[in-house]
């Protein structure tokens, strides 16, 4: 079995057996240092490992992922000197090179690492399974905790009695107190350990994998809690060593339910505010109203400053599922009602790209067949090369199905990992019929891009998010420009 | 037929016949001045009349209301030197006294006023009829435009050809272009007038009937639009004479649909954000979480600063209906889908007081019968004596039905107009079983009130909105205090 890096295409053979020798060698090199193990080397865990390895405290960091085709390339990359993340944040590479030079970072698939740790940070994924209908409408969803519980058990079966386990994964509220704590009790009983010694805490990350990737961990506000005071104190002491708390003070909440709720509440709030404006976008287009000027007028009110603007849709790992985690927990963990506003938000957001498609279909009808369509942007977020749950997928799939030739361009990507599709980093078409602007990368608002678009002479530009709002005069008069939500 | 002022109890005989003599006498006194007529002397129109009468421009103001038991007392009050509004804003009385002294304000029920006006401001109500179920859940709603159209026709049948008609009423988007403009065309045709001469504009108010009542008109941002440039220009010129636009610049929107949408969008946004937190309040109580500390933690994020806090419910004339006006217009005026987030917001908000009731019932069960219950607050808003659609009504009705003796106290009220109930302005109970805090009037957070409550020794205080959050130590330890949303 091989594991291939989507970052640089390098392939690694997934090893069998243990990694005892590798771990012991690393430990010998880092004698006297506190050992921090990060479980999960994804977008959060990999960056977190680098932040910890570069903190003022003298930590030795071991990242753990799985010996699978999905997981092993991250381990091999870190140990082989290759950053397992693509990002526009130069700090990420600096931090990685620095840790490699200090030799205080290592990655493994061997659970032996947990037995050596003073701190274990849980950064694995916890997904929501959605059931979507033909119109991408949410028909149902489920949260399966088994994989998460298995990962926690791996930790608890090996860890020291007085370890600090810090959960950063976004979990359904109630997980630390109603799922992990009972596992601690059960496993520590079996192992003959004192359950009062372990420190179990929750502190959620607010990582933004863009140009401020590292700063979104080191230089941003943090919320934390523990299952008891001992745990909360331990979490606080640790977080103070990795976060600039003089400028971004920590907030301790009274219990783990509180900080777990805090995370999904803030993301539900954002998802709902995005969903809200979508329905008004369609109304504005129908009423011949420029929703952008309406929003500017409303934002004059201090109480309404963060009202959102129209867009293609919602992507990323968090906003597409956290409101459902919350509602699931409300019902399953606390026997409360579902959180209707949060579920409605996901439902509306999941369907949002279909509106841009509808506008396109109304303009071209059957005429889309055989047209050349250029997508400006594949990423779900501006100035980032991140395609996780990108809303571009839904509109891409449907336009392909209608028979258009689609060209994907994104300056931050060379490949659309989830689709296994190449993405052009360079502008290399000679002519095109339709341009769809799907994300507001800063490059797209530049003389270079305006000149290019005027040169390839599309018949129609669909700007799904007001990217060209102040630049309409840069586009050739002969090109028809439709900005979603600008009904006039 | 008599008409009685709810402010001071004075009763006036509703006149028959016209008011030609009264109007002519007023006009003679104000020769050479521009005449501004305000249609509707409610919470907006009465205050607007005072602002216009006190503007730097030399206007003569005629307020028009109906010769009915509901309307005539406002007319008689103004002409008799009595302010037809109760408010804590001292400017209101100053403005009224000043206008009475200058003799540039008059009120009438006679449509003759419209024929003399240079500017006519429409400030009448436009209500939504709700169908509510047994649990106060929204089962349906309707908007009946007939009354509004009749009022507009009264204006158009009498007005000058080149009058500026400025609509301030919150209307379903589309009203100016699809309802009023066709009426202009029809009536001006009949009257042989030039439809191109009339100026028809929309500018929505953001009046807050509290201590900054006048400032919420004079010193706040305004949005406006016209059915054509002539109309928008005329509205701008007029608004500049009554609003301090050097500090609060006006925002012109491209068409009347836009400013009509802007008003209901901003209120829907607020209603939705209030509704959102309600579902989390119930979850927080069930999960033993202090939602207030969670909200404080989340508000550290600049993007999440305006997340709302728990409360009893939503009242007032605007937030309880504007989202429905919006959704109705989306469907009926523009053949779009309903605005689901907006309708859901009203549904959740209408039911919100039942949660506080549930907490009380869970604590007392059948034991509520015969208990003495003191309500601190009847108004829907802090530091204001305004009972329109107050959420207190639902919880009051149900507690009465359960057999409790209810005492209403509100320092801003002597009467609950809609219920015809007296409200005690003074604290005059000797003992009580339950105190329910329903609104955060500043008086309630004072030594005087804390002493009083400790003296009357309630068994239980239900704080529905976190009023006592930082003052728990002021309350006697023997009194049980439950703050809604503070689950710990």
How does this structure look, described?
The structure is a homodimer of 488-residue chains. With 488 residues, chain A is α/β, with parallel strands linked by helices. Chain A contains 16 helices and 19 strands. In chain A, helix 2 packs across helix 4, helix 10 (256-287) crosses helix 13 and helix 12 (322-332) runs antiparallel to helix 13.
Note the beta-strand portion of chain A: 15-25%
The two chains with the largest interface, and their residue counts, are: A-B, 60 and 60 residues
Low-confidence stretches of chain A: none
* Helix-residue proportion of chain A: 25-40%
Largest sheet of chain A: 8 strands, mixed
CATH level 1 class label of the largest domain in chain A: Alpha Beta
Number of helices of chain A: 16
The CATH homologous superfamily of the largest domain in chain A is called NAD(P)-binding Rossmann-like Domain
Q: Strand order, biggest sheet of chain A?
A: 5-4-3-6-9-10-11-12
Helix/strand-derived category of chain A reads alpha/beta
Shape descriptor of chain A reads globular
List the helices and strands and how they pair.
The structure is a homodimer of 488-residue chains.
Chain A lengths: L1 E3 L6 E3 L6 H10 L4 E6 L5 H9 L5 E6 L7 H8 L10 H13 L2 E4 L3 H5 L2 E4 L5 E5 L5 E6 L2 H13 L5 E4 L7 H17 L7 E6 L10 H4 L3 E5 L2 H14 L7 E3 L3 H32 L3 H8 L23 H11 L7 H12 L1 H12 L7 E5 L15 H10 L3 E5 L5 E2 L4 E2 L11 E4 L9 H10 L3 E4 L16 E4 L5
Parallel strand pairs in A: 3-4, 3-6, 4-5, 6-9, 9-10, 11-12, 13-14, 13-17, 17-18, 18-19
Antiparallel strand pairs in A: 1-2, 7-8, 10-11, 15-16
Helix pairs in contact in A: 2-4, 6-7, 10-12, 10-13, 12-13, 14-15
